[in-house]
Amino acid sequence: MDLTINGTSHTVDLPDDMPLLWALRDGLNITSVKYGCGIAQCGACTVHIDGEAVRSCQVALADVWGEITTIEGLGTPDALHVIQAAWIEHQVAQCGYCQSGQMMQAADLLERNPEPSDEDIDAAMSGNLCRCGTYPRIRAAVHAAASAMREA
Amino acid sequence: MGRARTIARRSFLIGSAAIAGGVAFGAYFVTRPTPNPLLDGLAEGEAALTPFVKITPDGITLIVPRADVGQGIASTQAMLIAEELDIDPGMATLDPGQPHRAYFNGTVAADGLSFPGWDKGFVAETVRDLMMNVARLSGSQFTGGSSSTADLHETLRRAGATARETLKAAAAARTRLPISDLRTEEGHVVLPDGGRIAYTDLAADAAVIAPVTDVALRPASEWTRLGKPYQRLDIVAKSTGTQAYGIDVVLPGMLYATVRANPGRGGGLADYSADAALAMQGVQSVVEVNEGLAVIANNTWFAFQAAQALEIDWLPPDYPASSAEMWQALSDAHADEFRNSRLRDEGDVERALNRATKIESEYRTPFLAHAALEPLSATVLVEKNRVTIWTATQVPHVVRDAAAEVTGIDAANVILHALPAGGSFGRRLDHDYVVQAIQIAASMPGTPIKTTWSREEDMSHDFPRPLHMARGRGTVEDGRVVAFDLDTISPSLVASWFGRVFIVPPGPDAMLVWGAFDQPYAIPNYRVTGYAAPPLVPVGSWRSPGACSNSFFHESFLSELIHAAGADPLEERLRLIDHADSRRVLEAVGEMASWSGADIGPRRGRGVAFAYTHGVPVAEVIDVTLTEQGIRIDEVWIAADCGTVFDPVNAEAQLTGAAVYGLGHAMNCELTYENHAVQQTNFDAFEGMRLHHTPRFHTQLLGLAERVRGIGEPATAPAAPALADAIFAATGRRLREMPFNKFVDFA
Ligand code: FES
Ligand code: FES
């Protein structure tokens, strides 16, 4: 099976019904995509397919309908995405385990809504659990990223 | 950005013999008989002075032995060394080191005593010193009890200062300049003419001179890094998906495993058939491990699927089958024969209780999972005479010894790569998951195997916060609280956990009454009695152990008495408090929230709670509104005093994170048991706080207390009682049992 991930094509020899999450993590060693619950309750596994945030634990390999973007596709330490820069500026991460998923979800939100209110952020991001409780800084970082993106 | 920073591997320690002129610095090489782990492997003539700073021609490595489970302690440890060493810690390599008794934690041992933290009397201080030495001798390298900063801040600064002064002495010897003419700056010794010698250039010289140990620590007024806002050293990695956790280890030829354990913890395996599982795609083998079976496969998903296909007859464990029976067991333990401690007993409680109308209440808190977002995981390679382990743990010395015990390989040949954890909250004070991973890897010597628990295993095989109940009796007179008598009943956490990782210490279990017996109130008739119920399920330390339940009991009951007395909840606490640091945080939180009583308008309410835990007084005020959808938490004010704050941005995150943890679980989390098994096995049934529940936070760290203390846990305990108090103010309903969503809805 062929997958396009962050612009690069990969071939995996894995069954149709394997969740994309495990194909990425164990099949392709892309471990920035995290396993947290496996049942769409935590958002740690969030990636984009054709620009839309999806829970990779819920998408069977056979159902992948487009190009996959993981957090590395958003930006890298040497070329940060605006959202990552805001996450750093606001020192959001504690353990950091949820944060790839949080940022991928935020990227989806800001793509559709460049000026989200607190309520919009709550509605878009409440599916992403953070057990360390970084929520106040997530809110602040989403607002900061939104205004940085509007100015850009 | 893009700084040279890596978590070094063991190769640094054992391979350093190959590096000419290596030198390692620290605080203990003269004053302590503790052997220096960096000595091993240094070549003849090289000096390895001790455990925390190592300088070679190739670079500077800082040993940061306390585990980073998200609280940011790797950064804080590095900053403490860097402040005295005059280096940019971002340019150094951080290495958690190998488990070693040089990295013992004395504070956590001294804190586990039957003295309140604010008792600075001769007996308390003497026994604390004694416990520090016990910890030193036993080499207990725990990360826990919010003890890391308190325990290491001086040691690490001293290590940095020793290294700096020795490097200066080496430069003086080389240049024949007086040492007083030299200064240091950003990893260099600076000469009077402006010439600079890099520390890395001086390593060989420093290795052969007597280290300078008589160094004074810089006063806070001279700090350039500590106490100022700075970026956590892991923040870029954690904001770009490039931080590798224990669960992310990838090794050539690696296989993947998972565990299916008896849902009734501690029951055994009667019989099983692995035929169906072995026939499934990708499955390599099925092996018996502690508590159950493991499947080894070539993808974690295959292992998860096959684990479900195992047909297993479990034996029942020896604890009661249902939550109802467990509550009954606690209630039955409220009897003289189970009495464990009475560490607070002032005035004449019985007489006071008989003089006025008694107010009585019962409170309950459920079992709770730690449920860190990263499920438990460990990767292990067992070879002929060596075990290599990659995992996140709060007890590296216990992991090392367990690996030796399981495999029969000498502990000296156990190599531990201690990795950052995706949360822990106390769960990784146990090492059951590592033992299973070692057993799994031992079944296939030469092949590295990563074992990952499913979320369902993680939730149903936690060592949860214990079930806890309390009964309070009290009286009020003339608008004042006069008598306060609290009986608190729970299985002994100390007996359960220490029994697993060490030995059960003698004497009363102070943790059973933490957060209750040690509160600095001067109530005229004041008594706290602990009852140790028989063990139920095995339990563990959960962020702010003991206090996370006891503070709810203590503060809620105090609020009930204050309400009955017709007094103001903040004013009466201030009147009763008998400890300057604690009084200040209560005053501060009142000012921050512009406190003028619990009544803040229709369908709204304001609550307050105070707790003294881990040597830190914390006061919290919470505002709620009763909306159409239920209770909404609007604002939370937190004032605390942990003494000098080294890492302010991170400390603020710990205050709010701990409060979120306390509030979220109080709102909607519990573990209940049926047929001996946990009923809540994933986040659909154990939600905690989500973004839409999250209030606005306002925090203040006063920085006035004399002793430096840790701040990872203290804001947890007062969160739940402050919320219950606010809900009472808004609705007139006093919630005496968690989770609160059994009684009210949350918006
Ligand atoms: S792992 Fe996919 S939502 Fe939790
Ligand atoms: S930062 Fe730890 S789970 Fe979000």
TrEMBL record, chain A:
Keywords: 2Fe-2S, Iron, Iron-sulfur, Metal-binding, Oxidoreductase. Pfam families: Fer2, Fer2_2. CDD domains: fer2. The keyword Iron-sulfur applies. One of its GO terms (molecular function) is metal ion binding. Residues 1-74 form the 2Fe-2S ferredoxin-type domain. The keyword Oxidoreductase applies. It comes from the Bacteria. InterPro entries: 2Fe-2S-bd, 2Fe-2S-bd_dom_sf, 2Fe-2S_ferredoxin-like_sf, 2Fe-2S_ferredoxin-type, 2Fe2S_fd_BS, Beta-grasp_dom_sf, Diverse_Oxidoreductases. PROSITE patterns: 2FE2S_FER_1, 2FE2S_FER_2. PANTHER family: BLR6218 PROTEIN, OXIDOREDUCTASE WITH IRON-SULFUR SUBUNIT. This is Isoquinoline 1-oxidoreductase.
TrEMBL record, chain B:
Keywords: Membrane, Transmembrane, Transmembrane helix. PANTHER family: ALDEHYDE DEHYDROGENASE, BLL3820 PROTEIN. Pfam families: MoCoBD_1 (PF02738), MoCoBD_2 (PF20256). GO terms for molecular function: oxidoreductase activity. The chain crosses the membrane at residues 12-30. This is Isoquinoline 1-oxidoreductase. Residues 240-318 form the Aldehyde oxidase/xanthine dehydrogenase a/b hammerhead domain. It comes from the Bacteria.
